[in-house]
């Protein structure tokens, strides 16, 4: 700064330095340019004036002494032994001290906004195609790193995209070919599951539209008897179940965990033929159980009182949306009613957990309960649970919220 009169002077000097580098380090050039010739070639380039001679001499000596070498692959810079020794020597001088930049991160948000989409897409492709365990682990670390940056910058769109992308892996990967191949695909799906819930539990404040995919995944796990009992064994849910005669979710024919995961990944609703489990299948069952338990799905609802207000509102809306509409006078199918019952349980639990800020959840929760009760023509498990859930909310909130 202060040396160049205009940008043209800098461009001309830069080109001159490239020519000097070629002259000094190309073996085919027999007669090398001298420092005097270099200075003469660069006269009057600074808007008709000369550049400082001492600067030109320093540039000449630096270029003549240090060759810039690029390896054949074009990606790595190679330092000679002498250059490395020079760097080590200079690192011990005051000029070699690392100085932290105190400038505010002015462009971080804009830069992240430009790269997060292609980054997630690229990582997803590698995750989908990778078979090597170490590469898969790198992709998981990549997903988590993007989530961390998005959380720091409070970039909710990126978190939502991550959650939705991981949920797609969970519901579209299909067992293929032989058993070992199926185990690999199952393990990858379970890794996506754990990663998705890890992001949701750690960065839930930034989740918005992604809650719909999360709740849909939870409902699918429940339908296939893969949802940990901790999720439906929360205090608020237990108290509702005590008073409700809802049909049991366990009347269906029991299936193995491995078969349930196969159905979960392939949307196969058909009944499987009973098979004798091999040791490999038993080991896979244990691994899958461990994966799902490590997701800590119950913490989404037990810790919802710590969510930011906007994220909590989206979570409540997602539960109501996932529960589906309650048509008047028309009985839901068994699967639809199971879904509605589970979502209602989780909605009531979330509402009670957030009693100190009930104004954020009450309007939507009340409208949903009211629609369930108003649509009833006959007593049903969903109506019973809606009535007792409403009473439970009132029992827990009236002592604290007189205006309700």
Give a short synopsis of this structure.
The chain has 404 residues and is mostly helical.
Return residue spans where pLDDT drops below 50 for at least 5 consecutive residues.
Answer: 172-185, 243-257, 266-272
| Distance between the amino and carboxyl termini | 67 Å
Count of DSSP helices? 18
Which geometry do the CA atoms define? elongated
**What string gives the helices and strands in order?**
HHHEEHHHHHHHHHHHHHHH
Strand count: 2
Please state how the strands of the largest beta sheet are arranged side by side.
1-2
Q: How is the biggest beta sheet arranged?
A: 2 strands, antiparallel
Give the helix level as a range of percent: 55-70%
Estimate the strand proportion: under 5%
SSE-based structural type:
mainly alpha
Write structural notes for this entry.
The protein has 404 residues and is mainly α. Helices cover 63% and strands 1% of the residues. The protein has a two-stranded antiparallel sheet with strand order 1-2. It is built from 18 helices and two strands. A hairpin with a 6-residue loop joins strand 1 and strand 2. 29% of the residues are buried. The radius of gyration is 32 Å and the shape is elongated. The protein has helices at 7-25, 35-41, 53-65, 81-91, 108-129, 133-152, 156-172, 179-202, 210-223, 229-232, 235-243, 257-266, 279-293, 299-302, 309-323, 334-353, 362-374, 381-397; strands at residues 69-70, 77-78. Helix 17 packs antiparallel against helix 18 (381-397).
What key phrases describe this protein's structure?
single chain; 404 residues; mainly alpha; two-stranded antiparallel sheet; 18 helices; 2 strands; elongated
């Amino acid at each position: 700064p202060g040396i160049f009169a205009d940008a043209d002077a800098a461009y001309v000097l830069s080109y001159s330095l490239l020519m000097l580098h070629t002259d000094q380090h190309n073996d085919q050039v027999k007669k090398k340019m001298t420092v005097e010739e270099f200075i003469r070639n660069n006269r009057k380039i600074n808007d008709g004036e000369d550049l400082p001679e001492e600067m030109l001499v320093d540039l000449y000596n630096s270029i003549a002494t240090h060759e810039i070498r690029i390896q054949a692959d074009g990606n790595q810079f190679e330092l000679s032994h002498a250059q490395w020794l020079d760097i080590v020597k200079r690192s011990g001088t005051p000029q070699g001290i690392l100085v932290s930049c105190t400038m505010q991160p002015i462009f971080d948000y804009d830069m992240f906004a430009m790269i997060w989409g292609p980054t997630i897409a690229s990582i997803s492709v590698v995750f989908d195609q990778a078979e090597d365990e170490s590469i898969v682990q790198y992709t998981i670390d990549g997903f988590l790193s993007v989530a961390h940056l998005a959380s720091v910058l409070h970039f909710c769109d990126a978190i939502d995209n991550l959650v939705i992308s991981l949920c797609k892996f969970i519901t579209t990967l299909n067992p293929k070919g032989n058993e070992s191949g199926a185990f690999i695909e199952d393990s990858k799906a379970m890794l996506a599951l754990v990663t998705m819930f890890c992001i949701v539990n750690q960065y839930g404040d930034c989740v918005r539209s992604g809650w719909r995919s999360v709740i849909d995944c939870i409902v699918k796990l429940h339908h296939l008897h893969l949802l940990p009992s901790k999720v439906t064994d929360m205090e608020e849910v237990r108290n509702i179940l005590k008073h409700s005669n809802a049909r049991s979710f366990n009347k269906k024919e029991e299936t193995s965990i491995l078969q349930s995961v196969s159905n979960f990944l392939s949307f196969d609703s058909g009944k499987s033929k009973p098979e004798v489990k091999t040791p490999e299948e038993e080991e896979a069952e244990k691994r899958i159980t461990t994966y799902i338990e490590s997701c800590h799905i119950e913490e989404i609802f037990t810790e919802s009182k710590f969510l930011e207000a906007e994220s909590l509102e989206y979570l409540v809306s997602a539960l109501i949306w996932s529960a589906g509409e309650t048509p008047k006078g028309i009985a839901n199918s068994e699967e639809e009613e199971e879904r509605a019952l589970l979502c209602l349980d989780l909605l009531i639990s979330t509402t009670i957990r957030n009693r100190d800020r009930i104004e954020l959840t009450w309007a939507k929760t009340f409208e949903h309960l009211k629609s369930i009760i108003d649509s009833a023509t006959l007593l049903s498990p969903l109506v019973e649970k809606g009535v007792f859930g409403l009473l439970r909310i009132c029992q827990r909130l009236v002592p604290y919220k007189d205006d309700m």
